[in-house]
Each structure stands twice: as C-alpha cells, then as structure tokens.
Amino acid sequence: MYKVKEKGKNHFMIYRCSMSMEPMIELESSLRKGLERDEFILYYQPQISLLTNEIVGVEALVRWERPGFGLVPPSEFIPLAEEMGLIVPIGERVLLEACKQSVSWREKGLPVFRIAVNISSLQFQQNDFIETVSRIIKETRANPNDIELEITESMAMGPIEKNLAKLSYLKKMGFLIAMDDFGTGYSSLHYLSQFPIDRLKIDRSFISSLGKSEKDAAIVKLIVMMAKGLNFQVLAEGVEEELQKEFLMDIGCDEFQGYLYSPPISADDCEKLMLANAVPLQS
Ligand code: C2E
Ligand code: MG
Ligand code: MG
Ligand code: MG
C-alpha cells in the first residue's frame, strides 16, 4: 500500500517537474496552440443526492490533452491561462462544450443533464460575459436551468454592485448559481445573503479533515445550517470516505461529490454510470 502510494507520488513529482522545468515561453505558446487545435476536453464528476443516493448532476472539469504530455490536470495550466488571459477563450470553449453535452444527454433521454461549469473571475468580469453566455445558449439551445455557473468568493473582491447585477441577470435567464470552494476565500456573510445563490459547495479541505478535526466538523455543520437558513442547497466536495458521507447525511447536507462515488470521468463513462444509476452504492 505504502509503496504504491510512494510510487504514485514520485511519478507525480517527475510529471510535475517535466512541465515546470519547461521554459515558460514554450508552455505559453503550446497553450495558445492547444486552444487553436481544440486540445481541451471535459471530464465530468457525478454529484450525488444524499437523500436518494442518485446522480443529480455533474461538474465539468477541464483537462488539456497535450501532445506528448498526456492528460494535463487544470492545476498545471489554469493559473498560467489566467495570467495570460487565455482562461477567457478556454472558459468559453468549456461552457460551449458543457451546453452541448447537456443537450445531448437530454436528447438521449439520460436521467441527468444538470452540468456545473467553473467560471473564472476574469471570465466573469469581462464586459461581454452576458453576451457570450447568451450566444452560447442560443447556439446550443441548451436550457439555462440545466447549467450551473460555479463562481468563487473572490467575486466579492471585485466591483460588488456590478457583479451582483450580472449574477441577478444570469439568474433571471434561468441559470443555476453555485458558490465553489466555500469557506476558503473572502466570505463576507453580508454579500452571501445578497447573492442569488442556489448552491454552496463546501470546500474539500473541510471535508477531508472530518473525523480528524472536531473544529472542522463544527464548521461543516455550521455551513450546512447557514445554507438551510439562507435557502441554499449545500454540496460537500471531495468526499472520499463512507464515514464522511454518513456525517454529512446526519447533518442534513443535500449532495456530495468525491472519489467515494467517482472521480471525474469521460462523458462516455459518465453516461454508463448514469444509466447504471439505479444500482445501489456499495458501502
Ligand atoms: P473545483 O472546481 O473545486 O473542482 C473540484 C476538484 O476536486 C477537481 O479537481 C476534482 O477532480 C477534485 N476532487 C473531486 N473529488 C475529490 C476527492 O474525493 N478527493 C480529491 N483529492 N479530489 C477530488 P480538478 O479537476 O483537478 O480541478 C481543479 C480545479 O481547477 C477546480 O477545482 C477548478 O477550480 C479548476 N477548474 C477545473 N476545470 C475548470 C474550468 O473549466 N474552468 C476554470 N476556470 N477552472 C477550472
Ligand atoms: Mg468547481
Ligand atoms: Mg474552484
Ligand atoms: Mg471546489
């Protein structure tokens, strides 16, 4: 067990080094080319209802199919893409693809078509963000009710009034709004009550210390209570253990996502999982 882990860890280190030792300029140019060549693909992680144990949605997570490097995780290129401003066109591509996927799942009669999409702050701040989103909806004929936009608390650092107006407009268009990584950022509870949020996503860091830190358990409990009071749904991220899931069920958390059920997987694998959804979970 230990060996496997260590091997996995070393492997990861080598992999990281090979990317990070690469001259920045090369990485930048291949990121640009990657966009031109459509090398970004989406994986999907199921979101499970704690009430019914069924898949109720998925989160779209981008991967870079970089020639010679395999499937590159977002941590390896999103920060740079943000610095370069490339996250704006990449994010647009991601939203377009997620909308297409949602429509396709609806057309195929699959039981799930709610897809959550991560929206970077920079993307959200663009003056034409609403236009872009509207164009994508028109083009794909996706139902905004099926698309959840994941924003983060860093939104509260920008021009609040403008952001609030934008969010309200998106909400009126029918989109679902989720607050991602909740508890890690500049959560002003004041803004939280003003934002038109449908779902709070409790950050993985709190969930992974459940069972180890009584204080984090108290915080998770408090977030769930607060979410209920504010009429938000609440989802726990990064659930890996049965005991974590049971705790979340006990305190009335609505949904979870995490390796316990499934890591992010390809659209095809996700379809298979959704079709097998009726099969009870192994504990
Ligand atoms: P996130 O939005 O908070 O996504 C959840 C991350 O947690 C995903 O990592 C997922 O694979 C991972 N995860 C889920 N369950 C577990 C678990 O049980 N254990 C552990 N250890 N990890 C788990 P991923 O796919 O590497 O994405 C990392 C981050 O990159 C995302 O965090 C999000 O902030 C960003 N990201 C991913 N796709 C996009 C995108 O299309 N646009 C933007 N702007 N950001 C993205
Ligand atoms: Mg997310
Ligand atoms: Mg995030
Ligand atoms: Mg998150």
TrEMBL record:
<feature type="domain" description="EAL">
    <location>
        <begin position="24"/>
        <end position="278"/>
    </location>
</feature>
<protein>
    <recommendedName>
        <fullName>EAL domain-containing protein</fullName>
    </recommendedName>
</protein>
